[in-house]
Amino acid sequence: MRFGPRRPADAIGGVTVHSLRQNGLLLKKGTSIGPAEVAALEHAGVAEIVVVQLEPGDVSEDVAAADVAQAVAGDGVSVERAFTGRANLFAKRPGVLVVERAVVDRVNAIDEAITFATLAAFKPVVEGEMIATVKLIPFGVEGKLRDAAVLAAQGGALRVAPYMVKRVGVVSTQLPGLAPKVIDKTLRVTAERLAPAGAVIIAERRIAHDEAALSAALKELLGLGAELVVVFGASAIADRRDVIPAAIGAIGGTIEHFGMPVDPGNLLLIGSASGVPVLGAPGCARSPVENGFDWVLMRLLAGLQVTRADITGMGVGGLLMEIVTRPQPRLPLAEGGRKVAAIVLAAGRSTRMGGPNKLLAELNGTPLVRIVAEQVMASKASRAIVVTGHQADKVEAALSGLDVSFVHNPAFAEGLASSVKAGIAAVADDADGAVVCLGDMPLIDSLLIDRLIGAFDPDRGGLIVVPVADGRRGNPVLWSRRFFSELMTLDGDIGARHLIAKHGEAVTEVPVDGHAAFLDIDTPQALEDARRG
């Protein structure tokens, strides 16, 4: 293949290497030069143009890309028509992408002109998803290099393994303190994981966390025709002799591997009984967020064997995204337990009240903001921070005599988020968390705040604590320091509800009675209703 500058008349049959614009002529990169192009170049006064010209034995970029792509494509893979030296490969069906890394490496080692890239091995893919691409760097390549790449790809470098397992049994073991709704959520999350594979839960059993009970449940589900059984333990598997592996062994099953170098997902167990895979799920499998459980589950659904070598080879790339419920280095607890600051938001303009500052409105002779502050002071909160803004001097006067710290928010007109950020920024470094209270919720009392603080348990994943009644979440909300950086990104006049939804696995709900956690005084009518009690 010849490369370099040519006079237009000598460039016939070549392909332009660069786009050219001169005297009204636009010739794009990759244009084949023929008599018409020569005439246009000469008319525009172009004396020289850089082209690539194929020589005997060379093949064009599109031909080479197409030939290599066809060679690497295995079962369940289709190849798109090559264009500009690129041939893309797509999944013909849903399944798990199986990549022969040695073949990919061989193809890429032939010559720098030929490149072959794929998605990650064992990635679940859907029909029509692009899974790989073959790209030729130059505009052509020696035929012998194309032939070598095709030979290197002999046998196919990638295929899509179709989902084979459709019937899944689920066992949930129970211990005191495990709420039924946790199991309900786990089943919903599991069903969503199985759906892309066309698999369904044919039966689920909830039993005591006991070897005998679990053995019986496993036998029952296998007898019902389950092609895969997943066990969610009420307590994490701690040893090969623990309840779940012991129950698998008791029915004649075997344990292939316990533990995996993927985090989250370390405590996964792979076993089998009567030729059917049995998975002991790690705790993170209750969350819809990707974890090591997904890596193994999808392979098994595609009928792929997962060996000990497969598991131990997952360490590179096995540290997945940070999960908020992962335990942090433990620090000695301060005397009296964890330190939780209280933030009272009292900066708003009360626009829905039609003029008066609602925080200064009185209920039983006491300003609303003072009622809230006094309850905070009576609680176990370590410190009270009041964020002021609109009519700051009057709000401070209403709280005179109370041992609170004031933080002024000069950006209060921008909305609630600015006050949350001002309060969070003022929390002392030694605080483990902060409970954010609204200054217009006078029915919140110290007992509720104390209940939120009592339920705050970072070591067990209780990082966000909210009051709830009839499935509805209210205020105030207690936030672990882990979320302070995210709270500092809030904007506008909305709160942090989306963060609660985002980190659902970190939420602890505290049941409450009545409407105290939901009543905020936003309108004159709401104030009158509160006064009538």
TrEMBL record:
Pfam families: NTP_transf_3. Residues 169-302 form the MoaB/Mog domain. The keyword Nucleotidyltransferase applies. InterPro entries: Bifunc_Mopterin-bd, MoaB/Mog-like_dom_sf, MoaB/Mog_dom, MobA-like_NTP_Trfase, Nucleotide-diphossugar_trans. It comes from the Bacteria. This is Molybdopterin molybdochelatase /molybdenum cofactor cytidylyltransferase. GO terms for molecular function: nucleotidyltransferase activity. It comes from Rhodopseudomonas pseudopalustris. Keywords: Magnesium, Nucleotidyltransferase, Transferase.
